[in-house]
Design goal:
Number of helices: 6
Strand content: 5-15%
Oligomer: single chain
Shape: extended
Radius of gyration: 26 Å
Structural class: alpha+beta
């Protein structure tokens, strides 16, 4: 029996809190983060321009780094600390975010062991229980390794009550990176017309599972689009060839 996705309220598999589309988005964001961080690192030093005459003088020398970039790629806590004076602007850094969530998820994974009689015992975490489990990527300790860890555990994360919270914070982190880099996910136009409105308006977003129409609410999975394209494109291709093929000249008697 399907349940409702806690993010988009769409249909999710039984005992899941994220639907396949929201899991697809989270997976795309995890694969995007290392590339975005690489771009952000090139922006760490502030740009310098030619000296200007006049204007207001500085009371102190400018900082040698951009604080909004350092907030993202520097050290920090895995959660936002109390900030009554409004001094924080960047939020949780990328590394602290990924490692903090990984340790939290690892502490929630059921522990399996053999008891003295040789029976497999599965112990599930309970509210208020503190586990000693610690996440540690097998492929290194960099941001790419942490993203890979989350990719592999995403099917488990999607079944936990905190899945929507993780999805929301991950989306916010990616948007912070995109704002600094002025980047957007790629959008590709599809060649088959929309099955609902017949417009040539179907597009595929890089971080979304469904192919959507820009003119109507139509949404297709990749398999649904492939079946639709196979059904309509042969006839449309034949019609196009018929239109562009020149008519034979009449024979003169």
């Amino acid at each position: 029996m399907d349940t409702l996705c806690e993010v988009c309220r769409g249909h999710a598999p039984a005992d899941h809190y994220l639907c396949p589309a929201c899991q697809h988005s989270a997976l795309a964001w995890l694969r995007e983060i290392p590339h975005q961080v690489t771009l952000v690192r090139t922006m760490l030093q502030p740009e310098t321009g030619p000296a200007r005459r006049g204007g207001v003088g500085r009371a102190h020398a400018p900082l040698p780094v951009r604080l909004e970039v350092l907030d993202l790629i520097g050290p920090g806590h895995a959660h936002v600390v109390p900030d009554p004076h409004g001094d924080q602007t960047g939020g949780v850094p990328v590394g602290a975010f990924l490692a903090g969530w990984a340790h939290y998820i690892a502490s929630d994974v059921p522990a399996v062991h053999f008891d003295a009689n040789g029976t497999v015992q599965v112990v599930q975490a309970r509210a208020g229980t503190v586990w000693a489990a610690t996440a540690w990527p097998r492929t290194g300790s960099g941001l790419t390794a942490w993203c890979t860890w989350h990719e592999r555990y995403l099917p488990y994360t999607a079944t936990r009550p905190y899945a929507a919270h993780f999805h929301h914070e991950l989306e916010g982190l990616v948007h912070r990176l995109r704002r600094l880099n002025h980047t957007r996910p790629r959008v590709r136009a599809k060649d088959a017309p929309c099955p609902d409105c017949s417009g040539w308006s179907l597009v595929e977003h890089e971080d979304q599972l469904h192919i959507t129409c820009t003119l109507c609410p139509a949404r297709l999975t990749p398999d649904e689009y492939d079946a639709h394209r196979a059904a309509v494109m042969p006839a449309l291709t034949a019609l196009a060839l018929h239109i562009i093929t020149p008519m034979p000249e009449p024979k003169v008697a």
